[in-house]
Amino acid sequence: MASSSSSSSLFVITFLLFSPLCFSRESPSQIPDGTLNLSLLWYGQFTPVQKERVRDFIESLNFDAKEGLDPKVSAWWKVVEGYQERYEVKEIYRQKSSSRTVAPKIKVKVVRSYVDEKMMFGKDLTIDNGEKLVETAVGNMSKVVPVVLLSSQVRAHHVGFCNGTCQEYGLTIKSNIKGQEKKQPYVMVSDPEVQCPGECAWPFHIANKGPHGMTYQPPSGEIGADALIIQLATGLADVATNPAITESLFKSEAPYSTDGNHTSSIYIVDPATKCFRVFGSGAFPGFTGRIRKHKPLFFSTPRNLLQPSKMADNGIDTSILRELHLFDLPLSHFLLLLFGEVSLDEFLAAAVDAAQKAGEVIRKGFYETKHVEHKGQVDLVTETDKKCEELVFNHLKQLFPNHKFIGEETTAANGVSELTDEPTWIVDPVDGTTNFVHGFPFVCVSIGLTIGKVPVVGVVFNPIMDELFTGVQGKGAFLNGKPIKVSTQSELVTALLLAEAGVKRDKATLDDATNRINSLLTKVRNVRICGSCALDLCSVACGRADIFYEIEFGGPWDVAAGVVIVREAGGLIFDPSGKDLDITSQRVAASNASLKELFVEALRLTNV
């Protein structure tokens, strides 16, 4: 990437969004001479693409590409450099025309590259062998950080990786020529595609947990190459920002033990780095769970985040520093604090987490006896509806306490809430309650997020059929992690139409609904009434049906999530009259681009 290519942006986007860093509450480490010397050990056989990506990435850390080629790897590395304490290098790093100190530059340099394709310590590594690999990478050099790269042939589950994850950094204890013990920092990286793709190859591989739809094509064409870079980037950033470079402030009290008779001298730098992807409740790859965050204005420079005195000066309650051993903060959240923006991916991740939790409640209740109440002429409400809405709202409010919330059950109890420009979560805890009561498996939880009254994130989860539909504005729509698209049907007469009769049951409304459906039956191949507006929209999004419409549905909670999913699947959402959709109007239609005008005209003839 020093020679730059279009793939560089994708690489850095990956780093910025998904590469977590652990920052100590104590003074971070310094690299006194400003150079991070790396000694690479290639253990096993690597593809040419993997080798090229590693070399390009390391060169790009200190390569300032031309303006306009953003985001850049070097810009990401400058954030890492910002976590070096400034005052201790004041005399060395002083701008010529000013006495203002600056963050020290960290020049990353490969001083040695050693290849062991025969794998002298075997393919199944133990903690002992991991220690020997570090020693081999160091050789007789001093002031180097060994980087051990393990190929796809190597199994490293017994080296100390956290639950099979693919990257680790820490310290080994090594004796020098005089017999004195010395702490040696190291980075060890395994091939994520083979070792643990569901944990470490995301976002290029479907994650074991979380938002399955959030996957990207690897820029190099090889998941193993691009995911390897993410792990390497995380390891280098951790080493550069952790006290391990000088003194281990949080080293393990006891070394690892492989059995009762043997003790290894590999130390993990601190408790958080052992499982560096675990940041809080609800965490999974790409989402850190419930972590502590503060308002952006307090963080004018990266180092302020690490200085309790600076935080206290700005009015921040520093008691959290006494409560937490570490600030477990990924780079994505640091950038969020710095620039005051939350990515839509984080919103999606939170919504998926909430939907899956609610889905467990729905799945359990689906096979049990229900206690049913009536909230209208035909709408039913169960204990499951109430429990799921409370669960979803509590989960999202803990993460986004300043957001607005609109739910079907709370609206029924307290009246309609006004939709504003503020970020607003709109939730139908059980869409298809009648289906739920009767054991018909067309049931879902629907969670949508609007910003400026525009739906931008949508999650619809049917736990009975185990189908998770997701959509994020500008990023596509997915079903269980696979991209979905609307149908290519272009003739109304061969189209499958989904329709609902609405929630009103007065004679005039029913007559209008049945007359309309009777009229449309002669213009389309067939009509289905399935009982869930949200799932009807998702059926159009994935091409199972070609058209959907409903008039007089319950409220915005029925469509807020589905609107995003249909649009991101290439479909159109509109008012049945053909005008733009208003999600509060209780009128909705959806189709592919070819069928919209044909269907609007057919509806017009039914006097909609």
TrEMBL record:
<dbReference type="GO" id="GO:0006021">
    <property type="term" value="P:inositol biosynthetic process"/>
</dbReference>
<feature type="binding site">
    <location>
        <position position="408"/>
    </location>
    <ligand>
        <name>Mg(2+)</name>
    </ligand>
</feature>
<dbReference type="GO" id="GO:0046854">
    <property type="term" value="P:phosphatidylinositol phosphate biosynthetic process"/>
</dbReference>
<dbReference type="GO" id="GO:0048046">
    <property type="term" value="C:apoplast"/>
</dbReference>
<comment type="pathway">
    <text>Polyol metabolism; myo-inositol biosynthesis; myo-inositol from D-glucose 6-phosphate: step 2/2.</text>
</comment>
<comment type="similarity">
    <text>Belongs to the inositol monophosphatase superfamily.</text>
</comment>
<protein>
    <recommendedName>
        <fullName>inositol-phosphate phosphatase</fullName>
        <ecNumber>3.1.3.25</ecNumber>
    </recommendedName>
</protein>
<keyword id="KW-0452">Lithium</keyword>
<dbReference type="GO" id="GO:0046872">
    <property type="term" value="F:metal ion binding"/>
</dbReference>
<feature type="binding site">
    <location>
        <position position="428"/>
    </location>
    <ligand>
        <name>Mg(2+)</name>
    </ligand>
</feature>
<dbReference type="Pfam" id="PF00459">
    <property type="entry name" value="Inositol_P"/>
</dbReference>
<dbReference type="InterPro" id="IPR020552">
    <property type="entry name" value="Inositol_monoPase_Li-sen"/>
</dbReference>
<keyword id="KW-0479">Metal-binding</keyword>
<dbReference type="InterPro" id="IPR020583">
    <property type="entry name" value="Inositol_monoP_metal-BS"/>
</dbReference>
<comment type="similarity">
    <text>Belongs to the EXORDIUM family.</text>
</comment>
<dbReference type="InterPro" id="IPR033942">
    <property type="entry name" value="IMPase"/>
</dbReference>
<keyword id="KW-0964">Secreted</keyword>
<keyword id="KW-0378">Hydrolase</keyword>
<feature type="binding site">
    <location>
        <position position="558"/>
    </location>
    <ligand>
        <name>Mg(2+)</name>
    </ligand>
</feature>
<dbReference type="Pfam" id="PF04674">
    <property type="entry name" value="Phi_1"/>
</dbReference>
<feature type="binding site">
    <location>
        <position position="431"/>
    </location>
    <ligand>
        <name>Mg(2+)</name>
    </ligand>
</feature>
<dbReference type="GO" id="GO:0008934">
    <property type="term" value="F:inositol monophosphate 1-phosphatase activity"/>
</dbReference>
<keyword id="KW-0460">Magnesium</keyword>
<dbReference type="InterPro" id="IPR000760">
    <property type="entry name" value="Inositol_monophosphatase-like"/>
</dbReference>
<feature type="signal peptide">
    <location>
        <begin position="1"/>
        <end position="24"/>
    </location>
</feature>
<dbReference type="InterPro" id="IPR006766">
    <property type="entry name" value="EXORDIUM-like"/>
</dbReference>
<keyword id="KW-0732">Signal</keyword>
<dbReference type="InterPro" id="IPR020550">
    <property type="entry name" value="Inositol_monophosphatase_CS"/>
</dbReference>
<keyword id="KW-0052">Apoplast</keyword>
